[in-house]
Design goal:
single chain, 869 residues, 8-stranded mixed β-sheet, 18 helices, alpha+beta, 11-stranded mixed β-sheet
Length: 869
């Protein structure tokens, strides 16, 4: 029976299982065999049994055990065979995941010039799952494909997740229980990498890629093609390289340079691809201890090999890791020594990262290696495209790294990810929320989720889109809307020149604080501080309030990271002063600010705001609220209009708001007033005969989609000829959204459309009806109309018509809409040339007050983005 009896790979020596809950163990055994599990130690022995089913599978449920530092032994028996796991503990088990900053081991976070090694603990343990990519449509495993439990001791400690370890260390101290970590992180993986095929297809935007990657042999064929491509590239370099083979015996002519530097700053090397040598001589004096010399050479782009006195002492194959190379005994000598670096540059972005240390550490002193160097080009090559990075692709990390976790009971999910979503930051909230919902549904319980907000970073290679990390942080802030979540802010502990900052101690401890507050309900852990509002209190002064104003501290005077934005695009740097009511920002400008930004950049070094406990306040953006006024009047065709305008009037833009079927302007007045408070002039109006309570002249029996398009056109012309806005937007709800969309498609003077659950269903609902039965006025949805409504329904393909509109479109729709199926919004977003769809989970036709409040912020942001770009 050997080999036919197995236990899931997650089980092993030194394992930690979640206490106070049932734990399921699965495995394989011949059909009909009885499997016995004996749990010994702790509170005594317990025997559990199961019988293998016709598929050769079994499952045993381990009943709840209390947390304990006393270890147990798990012995599985079947048909005379035994599998035994020793030193098993019950404690708190956390799933830690994300990308490289969660994956980063402790050894990568030790400063070689100031090493601080954590003490470790045998009661903190990690199960690190090897990275295995899966691209099958239905490829999903119920067990990890490998992995081994390790205790946080000795050499094993150095290869544990640094952020995970420090999280566990802090939590273990506070909760006094063993902490287990199941680590499924994978460097460079976006959140989409953790999603199944069907979910990605439903989200949309991945269809073309999924059609390619799910073809059998995709990964193998791509990898072979990349190896062949790189092999040819290297062969071409070798052909042209007449320098490298003689570099130590007959060196070529060298050119002076100064390290660190980026090749882009040197006209001779800008855009260089190929192989290049660097050389520097340094002197070791008689009084220096050379017994444990270590080279510290910052970071290089892309791959390097380093030689001391002609002997290779280390190499790195890609740009990110720090170059720390111990020098073998006997290689270094007193007197003059020569250091050579062979650098391979593949994508034309070579260099030595600025702000890093370049030196040799001789225990009791350092020899500085920055400054003057020499270089010699060995061979120039063509630009070589990067290899396919499989774990950075959608779907790749789902089957083998994510799905197997569903069957394990965890206390919580600890997440550090977002860097690889910076190419489309605006989708992060949607994607992360979808991932969390899927994960919880598959686990069968609402697992607490604690995530890390991205730290500060200024990409030295210029691969990161400007402001993309600021946008990701804002999206992560929105993710706190997801129930049972918490966020650790790390804006102050990044490194401008390093994607992988070494301070993971504070990251882990802040994640632990989140767990203490969210999971363990520790009332002594202070709540995070968030901004509430920014209000224009008088000319030149804005009051910024917080959830706990008295706990806010401003550490920079004057502040470095506040910006006020006007509709003209002017950026104002205000002064700031803390008062008992909040932070008062003072500015000088003739134009009223409409937007406040704090730390709104990729790399806001030394942020301004902290709590009195030393934790940073999250970066944020807020609309600047000002007093709004309104007036009412009639315009042509007897249309009744209510105009909302900001106290600080501005003709930069205007919005016209169209209500839904059997409604009136009061249904959009909250949106109109809120827009005016944000500096945007807004016009709400009643369609003629558009609904109950309408003040416009007309009756419902004359109303139709066609008549409302005419009404809206009258209002548009009035606003353009009287307010002269530089940009004009249309907002519409339900039928008003349908009318606004068709009107926008007919005209060329509308800068953007914001549509709330637009009724694109109207043609389908009406064109199949029998008009001969519409002989007189009749009631529909509580309102009296006539055959004119039927006659006014468009006979053309409305979705084809939408394609004629090229300006930006924002569609907002509830997933539980009982009047207009959300499928119409999904179809419309594809029909428009430039549209975004935001889904509101669980919302019906007619949003809740909470959703309505979010909608106002979303619309304002949509308009600001168009005006200020």
């Amino acid at each position: 029976m050997s080999g036919n009896f197995t236990v899931m790979r997650f089980f092993g020596d030194h394992m930690i299982l979640q206490s106070e809950t049932e734990n399921r163990v699965r495995g394989k055994a011949p059909f009909g065999e009885t499997i016995t599990l004996t749990v010994s130690g702790g509170s005594g022995n317990r025997v559990l049994t199961s019988v293998s089913n016709e598929k050769g599978e079994y499952e045993i449920i381990i009943p709840p055990y209390p947390p304990s530092f006393e270890s147990c032994t798990l012995t599985f028996s079947c048909g005379g065979e035994k599998i035994e796991f020793t030193d098993v503990l019950f404690g708190e088990l956390y799933h830690i995941s994300g990308q490289s900053n969660m994956e980063l081991p402790i050894c990568r976070t030790i400063d070689p010039l100031d090493p601080k090694i954590p003490k470790g603990s045998r009661f903190i343990r990690e199960f690190r799952v090897p990275v295995v990519c899966c691209f099958g449509k239905d490829e999903e495993y119920d067990d990890f494909q490998g992995g081994e439990w390790k205790c946080a001791e000795g050499n094993d400690l150095m290869y544990m997740s640094a952020a995970g370890y420090y999280f566990a260390e802090k939590l273990s101290e506070k909760q006094d229980v063993p902490i287990g970590l199941v680590n499924t992180s994978a460097g460079g993986s976006p959140v989409e990498a953790r999603m199944p095929y069907g979910m990605l297809m439903e989200l949309g935007g991945y269809e073309e890629f999924l059609a390619r990657c799910t073809v059998s042999g995709y990964e193998k064929n791509k990898a072979e093609a990349d190896r062949e491509k790189y092999g040819k590239w290297c062969a071409e370099l070798e052909k042209g390289d007449v320098v490298s083979r003689y570099i130590f015996i007959a060196p070529p002519e060298f050119t002076k340079c100064s390290i660190p530097f980026y090749f882009r700053d040197d006209p001779m090397l800008s855009g260089f691809c190929g192989r290049i040598w660097f050389r520097k001589s340094f002197v070791v004096t008689e009084d220096m201890d050379i017994s444990e010399a270590v080279l510290v050479l910052g970071a290089m782009i892309d791959a390097d090999e380093v030689f001391v006195n002609g002997v290779s002492v280390g190499s790195t194959g890609y740009m990110y890791p720090p170059r720390i190379y111990p020098v073998p005994e006997g290689v270094l000598h007193r007197g003059e020594n020569t250091l050579h670096i062979r650098l391979e540059v593949r994508q034309g972005r070579g260099g030595f990262v600025r702000g890093k240390k370049y030196c040799i550490n001789l225990r009791d002193r350092l020899i500085d290696l920055s400054g003057e160097w020499e270089y010699a080009v060995a061979a120039r090559g063509e630009y070589i495209s990067p290899d396919v990075f499989f774990q950075g692709l959608p779907l790749s990390m789902y089957g083998a790294l994510t799905a197997p976790a569903f069957g394990i009971k965890f206390k919580g999910l600890i997440w550090y990810q977002g860097e690889s979503n910076d190419s489309a930051p605006e989708r992060y909230y949607e994607l992360f929320k979808a991932f969390v919902n899927m994960y919880r549904e598959r686990c069968g319980y609402e697992i607490p989720v604690i995530f890390t907000q991205l730290c500060n970073f200024d990409d030295p290679v210029r691969c990161v889109v400007p402001l993309s990390w600021a946008q990701i942080r804002e999206q992560q802030l929105r993710c706190l809307d997801i129930t049972n979540t918490a966020m650790a802010v790390t804006i102050d502990i990044g490194e401008s020149n390093d994607l992988h900052p070494i301070n993971k101690r504070d990251v882990g401890r802040r994640l632990a604080l989140c767990a203490e507050r969210l999971i363990y309900k520790d009332s002594l852990v202070p709540e995070d501080i968030f901004p509430l509002s920014a209000e224009l209190i008088e000319d030149g002064r804005i009051l910024l309030s917080f959830t706990d104003t008295k706990a806010v501290r401003m550490v920079n005077d004057p502040p470095k990271h506040f910006e006020l934005i006007t509709l003209e695009g002017e950026i104002i740097r205000p002064s700031a002063r803390l008062t008992e009511n909040g932070l008062v920002l003072r500015y000088k400008s003739e134009n009223a600010p409409v937007l406040l930004r704090y730390a709104w950049e990729n790399d806001p070094v030394k942020p301004d705001l902290f709590s009195n406990t030393g934790l940073p306040v999250t970066p944020f953006r807020l609309p600047v609220i000002q007093k709004a006024l309104w007036k009412e009047y009639f315009i042509g065709n007897g249309i009744f209009v209510r105009e909302y305008y900001p106290l600080q009037q501005d003709n930069k833009c205007a919005v016209i708001l169209s209500h839904g079927y059997n409604q009136n302007l009061e249904s959009t007045s909250d949106i109109a007033a809120a827009l005016a408070e944000r500096g945007i002039r807004a016009y709400a109006f009643d369609f003629c005969g558009g609904g109950s309570g309408s003040k416009s002249i007309g009756s419902g029996i004359d109303m139709s989609v066609s008549s409302e398009i005419s009404d809206l056109s009258v209002v548009i012309d009035y606003v353009k000829n009287n307010a002269f806005p530089e940009k004009l937007f249309l907002y519409g709800e339900s039928q008003g959204g349908f009318v606004s969309a068709l009107t926008g498609a007919q005209r060329k003077d509308i800068s953007g459309l914001a549509l709330l659950y637009p009724a694109f269903c109207i043609p389908d609902q009406w064109l199949g009806r029998n008009p001969s039965k519409m002989t007189g006025p009749f009631e529909f949805m509580g309102f009296t109309i006539s055959k004119k409504y039927y006659d006014g329904v468009p006979r053309y393909d409305v979705f084809e018509k939408l394609g004629e509109y090229t300006a930006p479109v924002l569609i907002m729709h509830g997933t539980s809409d009982s009047v207009v199926n959300v499928g119409y919004a999904k179809k419309a977003v594809k029909a428009f040339k430039n549209a975004e769809l935001i889904l509101y989970e669980g919302e019906d036709h007619g949003f809740s007050a909470k959703a309505r409040k979010k909608e106002i912020d979303v619309i304002s942001e949509f308009i600001y983005k168009i005006i200020l770009r």
